[in-house]
Amino acid sequence: MKYMMFVVTSLEPDAEVDESDVALWVDPLDASGKRVIGEVLAPQGESTVVKVRGGKVLTTRGPFVETAEVICGFDILEVDSLDEAIEIASRHPMARNGQLELRPFMVWPDGAGRAGA
After folding, report:
1. What is the pTM of this model?
2. What is the architecture, at CATH level 2, of domain 2-104?
3. For a 10 Å CB count at each end of the chain, is N or C smaller?
4. Spatial contact of 117 and 106, defined as CB atoms under 8 Å apart
């Protein structure tokens, strides 16, 4: 099973995590193949929202909404079960300072993925 794990943090400055703690989490998962990819995202102020209305492309630079929490990174996990994904997420350093959202990838009836969906 493949899960997208969103790393969510508050906008509070004390929500930072020691990079060595992250490396202790990342390295064994990369070696085992359980972590497919992961990245830290640029600040929300660098985001761009794209939508089409009335045939026109509209873009908005962030931040967009009043929020106390933001997605600051992500990891894609390839695991055997939700329980395994939860166990992996519970060891992430941000589980102590923020939160982690696990979302499974859609399983389509024909078994094929939908690129760009």
Report:
1. 0.80
2. 2-Layer Sandwich (3.30)
3. C
4. yes
Q: Where are the domains of the chain?
A: 2-104
Nearest-angstrom CA–CA distance, 63 and 48: 9
Terminal-to-terminal C-alpha distance of the chain: 18
Per-residue pLDDT band for 105 (boundaries 50, 70, 90) equals very high
- Tell me whether the omega of the peptide bond preceding residue 28 falls within 30 degrees of 0, making it cis: no
Angle in degrees, CA 106, 107, 112, rounded to 5: 110
